[in-house]
């Protein structure tokens, strides 16, 4: 929708088609969603999906990192007002570690760590599920884009094993101030769809089934999260926002669809790429 390649009605129809396919296979308990950037997740798409998967990048809205924690959560709160009680998963968010500034957004290792620590700790506190963008740097990514940052979103360097941040403990949520700032200029009402910049590498607003299992190896950079990184092809880091370990996967209260059953989850992990291809 963001790139004007499809309308929300077209994507909603594909979601409905996928539900029909799954029902025909006896797999109607598998939840289906579509990933889209926050200003374009309208009521038509919300009504079609089982849970909302939204991509939010305060960096591409041009905010200073100090305001960005409030920016992303204000967008989440606004979506909750129209979500009809459906769960919301942040499909992608992150902060680049190198490149050119975008308005007031400055890419750096320190700013990336500040954004990550505040977002992760607040997500744990508010039980907000998310996928972190990205697990590792992608040197093959295009350099022909705004701010020249697309290669530099990883928490690991491009060798797939070396962390960018120093020390064994990157941050401690007991010491991170992630509280809301009432005086912050980050109110979502001050942002508009036209100010949102989501590059094709840092956001994928194409319809897909829930991909919370984009993982093959475990990595736990911070106390209180269960984090998994995907295979060495770049991409998102999956996290369940619970201080006591993984939570159940999102489900729609209206449809009863759930991925929390372990046999179903194992099967889903083996076929979700195939399902994504068909929609």
Q: How is this structure best described in words?
A:
- Its EC number is 3.2.1.39.
- One of its GO terms (cellular component) is fungal-type cell wall.
- Belongs to the glycosyl hydrolase 17 family.
- This is glucan endo-1,3-beta-D-glucosidase.
- Strands 5-1-2-3-4-8-7-6 form an 8-stranded mixed β-sheet.
- The chain has a domain at 8-19 and 33-179: Glycosidases (TIM Barrel, Alpha-Beta Barrel), CATH 3.20.20.80.
- It has 279 residues and is an alpha/beta fold.
- It has 5 helices and 8 strands.
Give a quick summary of the entry.
This protein is α/β, with parallel strands linked by helices and 279 residues long.
Features:
disordered C terminus, 8 strands, 279 residues, TIM Barrel
Number of strands: 8
Strand order of the largest sheet: 5-1-2-3-4-8-7-6
Bulk shape: globular
Quote the distance from N terminus to C terminus: 15 Å
Radius of gyration: 18 Å
Q: Roughly what is the average pLDDT, rounded to an integer?
A: 75
**Based on helices, strands and strand pairing, what is the structural class?**
alpha/beta
Q: Count of DSSP helices?
A: 5
Elements, N to C (H/E): HEHEHEHEEEEEH
User: What's the CATH class of the domain at 8-19 and 33-179, please?
Assistant: Alpha Beta
Largest sheet features? 8 strands, mixed
**CATH fold call of the domain at 8-19 and 33-179:** TIM Barrel
Classified in CATH, the superfamily of the domain at 8-19 and 33-179 is Glycosidases
Q: Which spans of ≥5 residues are poorly predicted at pLDDT below 50? A: 182-234, 242-279
Q: In oligomeric terms, what are we looking at?
A: single chain
Strand content bin = 5-15%
Secondary structure: helix percent: 25-40%
Annotated CATH architecture of the domain at 8-19 and 33-179? Alpha-Beta Barrel
């Amino acid at each position: 929708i963001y790139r004007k390649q499809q309308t929300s009605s077209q994507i909603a129809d594909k979601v409905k088609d996928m539900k029909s396919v799954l029902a025909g296979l006896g797999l109607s308990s598998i939840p289906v969603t579509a990933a889209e950037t926050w200003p374009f997740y309208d009521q038509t798409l919300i009504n079609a999906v089982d849970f909302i998967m939204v991509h939010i990048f305060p960096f591409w809205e041009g905010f200073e990192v100090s305001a960005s924690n409030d920016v992303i959560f204000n967008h989440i709160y606004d979506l909750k007002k129209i979500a009809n009680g459906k769960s919301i998963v942040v499909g992608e968010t992150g902060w680049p570690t190198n490149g050119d500034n975008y308005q007031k957004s400055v890419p750096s290792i320190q700013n990336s760590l500040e954004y990550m620590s505040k977002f992760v700790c607040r997500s744990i506190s508010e039980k907000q599920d998310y996928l972190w963008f990205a697990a590792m740097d992608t040197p093959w990514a295009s350099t022909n884009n705004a701010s020249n940052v697309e290669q530099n979103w990883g928490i690991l360097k491009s060798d797939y094993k070396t962390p960018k941040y120093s020390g064994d403990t990157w941050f401690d949520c007991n010491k991170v101030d992630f509280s809301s700032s009432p005086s912050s200029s980050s109110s979502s009402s001050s942002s508009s769809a036209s100010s949102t910049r989501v590059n094709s590498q840092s956001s994928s607003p194409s319809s897909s089934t829930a991909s919370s299992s984009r993982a093959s190896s475990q990595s736990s950079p911070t106390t209180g999260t269960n984090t998994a990184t995907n295979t060495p092809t770049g991409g998102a880091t999956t996290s369940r926002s619970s201080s006591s370990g993984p939570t159940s996967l999102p489900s729609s209260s209206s449809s009863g669809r759930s991925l929390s059953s372990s046999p179903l989850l194992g099967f889903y992990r083996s076929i979700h790429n195939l399902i994504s291809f068909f929609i």
